[in-house]
Amino acid sequence: MQIRCPSDCTWLASAREHPAAVVVRQQQRDLGLLVQFMRDLNERQSQLFFLVTHLVLAYEPPEFQPLVDDDVAEACDALAATYETAARGVIYDHRPASLPAERLATALKPKLAEAGKGGGTPFERDCATVLRRLAEAARDVRARSGDDRRAFLELLARLIPKRPGDDPEPARGRSDAEGHERPASRLILP
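The chain above was modelled as a monomer; its predicted structure follows.
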């Protein structure tokens, strides 16, 4: 059940200032995993890590073919293998076995190529390291989650904030006395 609250609602303000303990514990676990995933990455690799996670989150799979953690791991492994062979001077395009992973890899490839323009072998090595780490992270989170096939993607969605332009249409609120639009506030009750 949702109740529309004015922006000055004391209950809404309290809920924003003091999130439930479950939410706080989840945030702590998520941040702990993020630190574990990013262990030993240098600055450029850390930037690449966040770039690739943003790209994965922004990827929109075809309708009725949702992306799952195994697809992310497979796509990252294939791209990492491609970058590893390129760093050795061999041009060979490694391909994932599943169609959803292939589509994700195909969507990521041009964006990574654009990010790595002029980077040469050091970029290829860094990109391979980051992609291997992401594949490992996706498998690790998937193994810990049991039956949740999207646990890693959900973790990324909780950790990586949406950029302002990512939301197609913000929620509209009511106008105040001067005609200025106020954002919609909602208090959700069980």
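The beta strands are 2-5, 185-188.
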